[in-house]
Amino acid sequence: MIEKPWFVFAGGGTAGHLFPALGVAESLRLQPEQIDISFFCTNKPSDKTILDRTDVEIIPQSVRPFSAKPWRWPVFWACWRESLSSCRRAFQKRRPAVVVGTGGYASGPPVRAAIQLGIPTFLLNPDAVPGRANRYLARQGKLAGIFAQWPVTLKHFPRGTPVLVTGCPVRRSFRYVDRAEVPSIVESFNLDPERKTLLVTGASQGAKTINETMIELAGLIAAQGWQVLHLSGLGDRDRVTQAYAKAGTRGVVLPFTDRMSSAMAAAELIVSRAGASSLAELLAMAKPAILFPYPFHRDRHQWHNGQVLVEAGAAMMLEDLKEAKANADRLRPILVELMEDDRQRAKMGQLAGALSRPQAADDVADTLWQASKGG
């Protein structure tokens, strides 16, 4: 019996480290041969929640994120060595056709093991500025390629690094939306298809500062005759719901949705963080956006992501000042401007669509398939 090719993705910890890889996995399933796909992820419940909805094998690892606190280093290194040894044993028992690091600390041991064993190894790097894990792994040995979302990333890797600017893979649901179905999509969220919809999202875990900012602006949405679909995360759902109800704003507040492509399809305007995979999805849907980059990363990588869209005219961006009233005071005039100007929103959406690379998942999958065949 001929064994099916085994494609391994390594990473997790956040949705942004999983969703681009899932887009590639969907495209790999369209290849003419049957294949096996496994995700070597973290042991966070969020990884299992996301991956349980797919047809991939889930292999949690014991590896932990690196800490700047020296007293935590012994535990980190013990977990790292355990994960690295486990990956080596797994890959020696059954050799993967390809291993792909998808970002984050969980990508480290599988990618290191694959490089050591001479397995074709790639990295997905959707952020404009590479994260710590990808910078580290790019120095560890011969990589077959690094898939980047934007040309700006090239300057952040050493000369000679095999960086391929493919765009960021998105799942197929973001690439094929029937506009005629949008009214029924809006209704499926218990919203009014006759009203314009503002989508507010803080990514998969929600964003407290964005939630608090929108609580300050709850009445503005009603005053403009709009409605809101707000993805709040678990902790703030009740507070946000109560704020909209008190202001008389028609809105639906969800802690999370696995129908993100539908949520974006329902929206005329989006307020969002600036995670790389979220921006790729936004571009694929050709939606205008106001971005609030996550303010707590030292390298400000979400700001650099958002700047690509701002320079293209596809989005506006505000620094998250981490204080609700200050954020609201700056966001209010921009929201009013965009809510009232259909032509400006349409122009931003067109520019967003022009920046998108909707075939990225297929292009990455084709490269991985050729590598699996020795090409």
Mean pLDDT: 93
Enter the CATH topology name of the largest domain. Answer: Rossmann fold
CATH H-level name of the largest domain... which superfamily? Answer: Glycogen Phosphorylase B
CA distance, first residue to last residue: 24 Å
Query: How are helices and strands ordered from N to C?
Result: EHEHEHEHEHEEHEHHEHEHEHEHEHHH
Q: Sketch the major β-sheet.
A: 7 strands, parallel
Q: What is the percent of helical residues?
A: 40-55%
**Count, helices:** 15
CATH architecture of the largest domain: 3-Layer(aba) Sandwich
Strand pairing plus helix content: what structural class?
Answer: alpha/beta
Low-pLDDT segments, ≥5 res: none
| Cα shape | globular
What is the number of strand segments?
A: 13
Total separate domains: 2
CATH class of the largest domain: Alpha Beta
